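Example for tutorial group B:
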């Protein structure tokens, strides 16, 4: 991994405009509604195991990543399904049909980190 230049860390960053964020969120909500409407649910968070299996399928790289995360982070079955639903939402926000390892990594980073002493 190349070293990040100091100026890129402290330089001025422009954030995404609220209107753009709102558009992305609405588009993601529309994607979820289109995908889940026939099951009489509206959001990824409402998916059960059957729908998770159908709509959160992972490729080989994603499967390998989640397997390593389960082992290293000791994820429970509940944490595993929650991570998949979050990754599905991240993919929806990016307008992607497939969950990628990048989406999974971001979802895993939202998990609380416990310090064992």
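The residue assignment follows.
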């Amino acid at each position: 991994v190349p070293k990040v230049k100091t100026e890129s860390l402290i330089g001025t960053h422009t954030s995404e405009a609220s209107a753009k964020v709102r558009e992305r969120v609405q588009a993601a909500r529309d994607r979820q509604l289109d995908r889940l409407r026939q099951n009489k649910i509206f959001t990824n968070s409402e998916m059960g195991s059957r729908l998770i299996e159908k709509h959160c399928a992972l490729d080989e790289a994603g499967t390998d990543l989640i397997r390593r995360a389960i082992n290293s982070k000791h994820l429970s079955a509940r944490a595993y399904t929650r991570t998949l639903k979050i990754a599905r939402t991240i993919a929806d926000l990016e307008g992607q049909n497939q969950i990628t390892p990048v989406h999974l990594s971001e979802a895993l980073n939202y998990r609380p980190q416990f310090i064992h002493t």
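Residues 17-109 form a domain with the Helicase, Ruva Protein; domain 3 fold (CATH 1.10.8). Compare this with the pattern of hydrophobic and polar residues in the output above.
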